[in-house]
Write a structure and sequence with these properties.
Elements: E1 2-3, E2 35-41, H1 46-58, E3 63-67, E4 71-73, E5 78-80, E6 87-89, E7 104-108, E8 115-116, E9 119-125, H2 132-139, E10 146-151, H3 168-177, E11 181-182, E12 198-202, E13 208-212, E14 223-228, H4 246-254
Parallel strand pairs: 2-3, 9-10
Antiparallel strand pairs: 1-5, 2-14, 3-7, 4-5, 6-7, 8-9, 10-12, 11-12, 13-14
Length: 255
């Protein structure tokens, strides 16, 4: 439990002594290794959050996408869970209550953007009664080589037999219009209530998603294990953009 703030855990090539914020830093990755992504909703539960990071590290996942992370705050510090194997990224720099706390947390091994070799990875969380986040996602122009995963809190017969609920039809229409393939196996639940609400979609071929029982975090959601084969196609240029407000996030997604 420490204050947020990623630490550079990579070896840069010819990096300036005082690089500009957000400036690219060259680094090569293994171009034959599949990219493995761990996705789970940890329900704001501290042990579940710790467990998710420990499991992801023990299974050597490259990226961890968590929804409803544990957070806290003091008078001068915003707190969340970190892990020495991963850099930690949040959509906001500080928070002082439930209204502005982050609803997602992303962890990476030595990569300082989630645009990797031209591949964009989106960590998504939406509450049942919340509309702005989904509206922003639906308006966002989906790039090529994109994977979106998280807790959509919606149902549709595409991924779960039965009536569409909670804007599930809009989500299904959006995936179809953007040529996004559902990676979930239909009717395989992602929570103990039998619902499939944690979804992964992509426009990249041969990507896979599996619900992994042995990666249970003790929250009320199951863990999705995602694999993107041949993720490394070229030397990457990692960087980092920190979005500090919801308005900036929306502007960033529109741009």
């Amino acid at each position: 439990m420490v204050a947020t703030g990623p630490q550079a855990g990579y070896e840069a090539e010819e990096e300036p002594e005082h690089p500009q914020p957000g400036s690219p830093r060259k680094r090569h990755i293994n171009n034959k290794k599949p990219l493995r992504i761990f996705q789970a909703n940890v329900g704001k539960i501290p042990p579940a959050h710790d467990c998710a990071l420990a499991l992801a590290d023990s299974e050597r996942y490259d990226i961890v996408l968590l929804q409803e992370p544990w957070t806290a705050h003091t008078d001068n510090c915003s707190l969340t869970k970190t892990h020495p194997a991963y850099d930690t990224f949040t959509p906001v720099e500080t928070w002082d209550g439930n209204d502005n706390r982050p609803r997602v947390m992303t962890y990476t091994r030595d990569i300082l953007w989630l645009t990797i070799n031209g591949m964009t990875i989106v960590n998504f969380y939406r509450q049942n009664d919340e509309s702005d986040t989904l509206n922003t996602l639906i308006r966002w122009p989906v790039p090529e080589r994109c994977l979106i995963a998280g807790d959509f809190n919606a149902r549709h017969h595409t991924w779960q037999t039965g009536q569409a609920t909670n804007r599930g039809q809009e989500i299904a229409d959006w995936t179809s219009e953007n040529d996004l393939d559902l990676l979930n196996t239909p009717d395989i639940p992602t929570n103990p209530h039998g619902n499939t609400i944690d979804l992964a979609v992509t426009n990249m071929p041969l990507a896979e998603a599996t619900v992994e029982d042995h990666l249970a975090t003790s929250s009320d959601h199951f863990t999705l294990s995602l694999t993107v084969p041949d993720a490394g196609l070229a030397p990457m240029q990692p960087g980092r953009v920190r979005v500090t407000t919801d308005d900036k996030l929306k502007r960033s997604l529109r741009s």
